[in-house]
Amino acid sequence: MLQTSNGTMNQSQVENKRSMLTPEQSAELKKWLIAVALKRDKQAFAFLFKSFAPKIKSFGYKQFNSEALASDLLQETMSLVWRKAHLYNADKGAVTTWVYTIMRNLSFDMLRKMQTSKEDCLSDDIWPIVDAHAADSDTEAFSDHLLKQQLAKYADALPEAQKQVVHGMYFNELTQEELAHQLNIPLGTVKSRLRLALGKLKQQMEKNS
Amino acid sequence: MIKHHPKHELLTAFVAGELPAALNIAISAHVEMCEQCQHALAALTEAKAEEVFSVEDFSVFESLNSDLADELDELMIANITSQKGEYTDELVDVRSVDYAGKQVVLPRALNSVDWAKFQGVGKLSRARLDLDEGSVRSYLLQIAAGGSVPMHTHKGYEVTVLLDGTFEDEMCTYNKGDFIWLDESFTHSPVSNNGCLCLTVADDAPVFTEGLSKLLNPIGRFIY
């Protein structure tokens, strides 16, 4: 193996391929998405919406040859961006890749519904959005993946303020300083919320293992 | 060790969502087992997303502060942001199939697919996936130890993803995870000495089964 981990390889590929959006623009998109994930920030969402809407509409129009269906695709895609923002993992790739996956999947299921008698939604199992594919397919990675899902569930049950901090640190990979800045709270508060949250998570994991 | 992979063009079409469901499922099944293709796929998806969302039309970067916002867009934004966020992904169920006295975990791509009962002739047994895609037919196929498929060729294409076990044909030995694409330029007769479980997808050209009676030639109906 040339690479030591998926992360390093993906990172270098990302750097090479990012010719169309400037790094500043990509960083902007990421900032907005993380703001939606952490704070349900409506303004940041509006920026994301306006960035992606024209392209999603024209992609949809090419797929369905219908303005109405293109608009449905836009609505459905951006709804999922809003509702799943906290599942975006900055480590796994660019915001554009994440949004593209959501849009392509929805579009595939819509087309299938039109072309067959089937109401099944196959796309999220074919192209998983919460990225099971990116993990190594050996058992260790698999159980690690399960553990992560379980942790994510416990983290979801934390009080709002603590949840924000845990999500920011572990899902969005922000530093404590960045988080303090994003949430507009003192660094000390970030630290104490984190300590409380981790204590609770530890308790939960011990209780259930 | 996986040696057979989908071609670059096929992965590209997979990323673009241009293939029939059955082929998508076959490719996804292979990718789940193949680290090399996981990397290739990550890079292709990244590139495709960049292409689709290319910068020229990223209107926000020009009009962010202008008040030209479309009223309909504003309505849609208000509508979406009035929803609760916090979508929780459920744990993904794992499905398995019993064959040759053991349980084989199936690829995630088959999670929401139904299939008919396994029906067998001799050492071959197959279950048709219920995907409703016209001429594209897909099966879970088991070959019991020592079983073989008689010499045949293909109209259109035939894809086999080996989910468990091994089989051989005149060209090579195939292992778990291999993705094998054959077309009419190949004639082969696969043999599985120790048994295997595959996912097969074929674009079943009508001429292929023409005149073949199920009763007179059950094997004929059997060849993908």
UniProtKB/TrEMBL annotation, chain A:
Q: Which positions fall inside the RNA polymerase sigma-70 region domain? A: 48-113, 156-203
Which Pfam family name is an example for this entry?
A: Sigma70_r2
Lineage summary: Bacteria, Pseudomonadati, Pseudomonadota, Gammaproteobacteria, Alteromonadales
Q: Where is this region: Disordered?
A: 1-22
Q: Name one GO biological process term.
A: DNA-templated transcription initiation
Entry keyword set? DNA-binding, Sigma factor, Transcription, Transcription regulation
Q: Where is the composition biased (Polar residues)?
A: 1-14
Q: What is this protein called?
A: RNA polymerase sigma factor
Transcription regulation among the record's keywords? yes
Keyword DNA-binding found: yes
- The scientific name of the source species is Catenovulum agarivorans DS-2
Q: What family name appears in the similarity comment?
A: Belongs to the sigma-70 factor family. ECF subfamily.
Mention one GO molecular function. DNA binding
Q: Which domain of life is it from?
A: Bacteria
UniProtKB/TrEMBL annotation, chain B:
Cite the Pfam families for this sequence. Cupin_7, zf-HC2
InterPro entries attached to this UniProt entry = Anti-sigma_ChrR, Anti_sigma_zinc_sf, ChrR-like_cupin_dom, RmlC-like_jellyroll, RmlC_Cupin_sf, Znf_put
State the source organism's domain of life. Answer: Bacteria
Q: Which residues form the ChrR-like cupin domain?
A: 111-200
Q: Taking every annotated instance into account, which residue ranges of this chain make up the domain Putative zinc-finger?
A: 8-38
* Protein name, UniProt field: Anti-ECF sigma factor ChrR
Species the sequence originates in = Catenovulum agarivorans DS-2
